[in-house]
DNA sequence: GTTGCCCGATTGTTCAACAATCGAATACGT
DNA sequence: ACGTATTCGATTGTTGAACAATCGGGCAAC
């Protein structure tokens, strides 16, 4: 539990130099590292992040780490409890429902009215489908989940808006948190692979209404499933 | 120009105690103060925000101010130029177009498919229309602009999503930056007041398709107008 | 007039400290 | 034994001072 924190060091020590070559500010690097640790599931929901030890582990000062933490709090990946520290966010059913409310508005709209249906973006959409299939073939469930994210990122990208892309990135990061609270995320994603393919084909064929419709059903179904799961088995 | 910064002090000195009673963290207070100064137009696009003097002016340490600045950078109100400092964002035509791309997706969708068309939210929508009319009657153009923002905030709220509300808040703050770069924002808002009323009535009457349609036209028109303006008069 | 160099100013980052606050363990009263 | 006050250690919020790295502008050399 506490040593989730220590593990940051080991995992990081290798990357340290490489990342330093890319260079940016230390705070950004720290934020990127923590974000990755969280979305990869190495730091799980509810774990506390004591500033002192974490700063030492990452190799930055407490002040610098603080900037990184603030950034991640703004991204809703962490939550700050005043005078008690920051912890990895623990999303509940309401959060799941809310994220899907946003996605249900944005994604079908991007398909339907998006002004960015360019060739490269459509190619990215198609590529995400392929990625999902090959990952599924290799029974790489982590890869399937990843491909799914890429698919939805590609869908939002059809809107052609940098700001919407950024928001989508936040939402998808939150989604990772959801899945880390489930027992078998792989099974969850699998059934949607074929649906992704159908939607992609419809979009490529320019049949936007049908694509948007199926996407809406898709998301609504996933929302119901996830919310039910987060209300807990047996819980009313 | 440089003394825009100094003015923060004067304007703030009065509020200092009151805000302290509400209390939160110093960094949040600093961020709130700066955000207000920017959206109110007292700190204009392009003005630099030297950490040393600004920290002294607001009455917090440089480290604390830094957290506040980072937060506002995340909100796209300020931009950080590495090793050169933070400046108030200077949106260009691309930014305007992008913000409207997002609004064109979200707002009509909120009207059309929003799951939060509750009585209080509909009342808020109606109230924003009234607010605009009274402000217009008093020829209070600042008030008209404000009411307009409230109208669009109310529209997005129809989606019933806290996350979407937060994103809308960011976009509307950016919009204030746009208007501060124009010469006569009042004239810009005035023509849209009646359209707001029509849309609100349609929404209240449950005629969502028509409302969404008019809202789309509305936003597209405003986008065209603003983008043209930002490309500059005479500029192609 | 252009090129190169140096210098002051500002940022990025660290360190060490302190008051305020929280949680828990402790002691107390009944 | 049980609920309540109290102390105490740990952590956060915040400050101030420091230092290297970097940037921009002015100055000098050519």
What do you see in this structure?
The structure is a homodimer of 236-residue chains. The first copy, chain A, has 2 domains: 3-88, Arc Repressor Mutant, subunit A; 93-230, GntR ligand-binding domain-like (Four Helix Bundle (Hemerythrin (Met), subunit A)), CATH 1.20.120. Helix content of chain A is 73%, strand content 3%. Chain A has 11 helices and 2 strands, in the order H-H-H-H-E-E-H-H-H-H-H-H-H. Chain A has a two-stranded antiparallel ribbon with strand order 1-2. The radius of gyration of chain A is 19 Å and the shape is globular. At the A-B interface, helix 4, helix 5 and helix 8 of A face helix 4, helix 5 and helix 8 of B. Chain A binds a DNA duplex (30 and 30 nucleotides) through residues 25-27, 50-52, 60-64, 66, 82-85.
List keywords for this structure.
3% strand; 236 residues; homodimer; 2 domains; mainly alpha; DNA-binding; 73% helix; Arc Repressor Mutant, subunit A; two-stranded antiparallel sheet; Four Helix Bundle (Hemerythrin (Met), subunit A); globular
Describe the structure in brief:
The first copy, chain A, has 236 residues and is mainly alpha-helical. Chain A has helices at residues 3-22, 26-39, 51-58, 62-74, 93-113, 119-137, 141-157, 162-180, 185-189, 192-204, 208-230; strands spanning 78-81, 85-88.
């Amino acid at each position: 539990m506490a040593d989730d924190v220590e593990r940051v060091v080991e995992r990081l020590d290798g990357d340290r130099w490489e990342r330093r070559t890319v260079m940016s500010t230390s705070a950004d690097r720290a934020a990127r590292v923590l974000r990755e640790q969280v979305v990869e599931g190495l730091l799980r929901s509810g774990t506390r992040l004591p500033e002192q030890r974490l700063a030492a582990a990452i190799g930055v000062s407490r002040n610098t780490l603080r900037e990184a933490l603030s950034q991640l709090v703004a991204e809703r990946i962490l939550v700050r409890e005043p005078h008690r520290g920051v912890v990895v966010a623990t999303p509940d059913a309401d959060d799941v429902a809310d994220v899907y409310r946003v996605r249900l508005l944005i994604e079908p709209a991007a398909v339907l009215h998006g002004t960015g249906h360019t060739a490269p973006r459509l190619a990215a959409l198609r590529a995400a489908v392929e990625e999902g299939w090959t990952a599924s073939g290799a029974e790489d469930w982590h890869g399937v989940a990843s491909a799914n994210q890429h698919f939805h990122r590609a869908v939002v990208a059809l809107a052609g808006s940098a700001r919407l892309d950024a928001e989508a990135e936040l939402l998808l990061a939150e989604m990772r948190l959801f899945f880390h609270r489930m027992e078998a995320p792989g099974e969850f994603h699998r059934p949607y692979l074929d649906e992704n393919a159908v939607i992609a084909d419809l979009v490529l064929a320019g049949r936007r209404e049908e694509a948007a419709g199926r996407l809406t059903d898709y998301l609504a179904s996933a929302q119901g499933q996830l919310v039910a799961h987060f209300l807990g088995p047996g819980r009313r």
